[in-house]
């Protein structure tokens, strides 16, 4: 179980790196000097400190997501160890793919131009947690 938690945390950190770099490319278009958030941050706090805190929170959040996935893999491995879809654990991969699939549908419904930019991050999430996690832990 401890191996699953450590592997989950490390894969979460990998996903955080992808999210921070890809998210920066996506959100730079929407951040302008006239933005209320930018004005608030510039008047209240140091923008550098704000960005560093946000990046730190993103890394912590993705580590927690990875730990949850690691623990879920161990539990689902005990319940149903059948393999499929190119994964050592079919049930875990299917459960993991529910989130990226629903995210793609929501973004496609709301804003198709953002979907093109967010799709690589979503697919990397599916690959990291849906397939890399089971192979790392087996």
Report the uncertain regions.
none
Distance between the termini: 12 Å
The percentage of residues in β strands lies in under 5%
Order of helices and strands: HHHHH
Tally of alpha and pi helices: 5
Helix proportion range: over 70%
* Coarse shape: globular
Report the mean per-residue pLDDT as an integer. Answer: 89
Query: What Rg is obtained from the alpha carbons, in whole angstroms?
Result: 17 Å
Strand elements, count: 0
Q: Tell me about the biggest sheet?
A: none
How many domains in all? 1
Class from secondary-structure proportions:
mainly alpha
Can you characterise this structure?
The model has no long low-confidence stretch (mean pLDDT 89). The protein is mainly α. It has one domain (2-137). It is globular and about 55 Å long. The chain contains five helices and no strands.
